[in-house]
Hints:
The protein is an alpha/beta fold. The protein has helices spanning 21-31, 50-55, 67-76, 116-124, 139-145, 156-164, 204-216, 222-225, 232-237, 251-262; strands at residues 17-18, 38-42, 59-64, 83-87, 105-110, 130-138, 165-173, 178-179, 186-193. The N and C termini lie far apart (52 Å).
Amino acid sequence: MSQIYQHRARKRFGQNFLHDTGVIDRIIRAIAPREGDRMLEIGPGQGAITQSLVDSGVQLDVIEIDLDLVSILQDRFALAKNFTLHEGDALKFDFSRLNPEPSSLRVVGNLPYNISTPLIFHLLNNAHLVRDMHFMLQKEVVERMAAKPGGGDWGRLSIMVQYHCRVEHLFNVGPGSFSPPPKVDSAIVRLTPHAVLPHQAQDARALDRIVREAFNQRRKTLRNTLKNVLSAEEIEAAGVDGSLRPEQLDLAAFVRLADQLSAQPAAQLS
């Protein structure tokens, strides 16, 4: 048995290695890599998806935090001229280091579920560099990303991801496709940054502040949850009914509230 398959998954890195070749092929078809594409893979693991990306002729950078896997990947792809390995934590990685053209970077990854949400937010801060993103995530997280207003899944993640990107829940993946099998179902999602934001806030930091405040106590009315940042009159001035709960508002309404906050002389945006 080769060295590649002897590495044991580590809980502290949230590792679940994809081994189902049918699922791997389906992911590659969804990504549709083309020769010359600038691609970044986060957490390549044992290289299940990496091999197909290298073979497709893309210019591939990968980020891996596990030193044992770094060694394995270096050995496996030593002769690949289109492969560059970055050892480190994707949460702290400066994506501008890759010097991509605007809207050119294609990002893929089987993301560790324990860091998936903060990593998504880190990538959204660099959305101007990104052409598209394909991720394996916990199915519940993908459902929250793709949620619509009015349901229990609609929240901060839905709003902030949809502010920046079009979200497509492509397909689900069962636990048996991984080693070790996770305790939850997984899903593949495609995130495509908007060429033009459908609802542009004057300051995205104000939108994040409003959304965080609103959903801190999602069962309360907006008049109550936003009282530390907006008065009842300011909520009304944004064209929003303060007696509604946050899950009842769409993205456009949250952007109007954010713009009300931005208009304050000394707005608290963080």
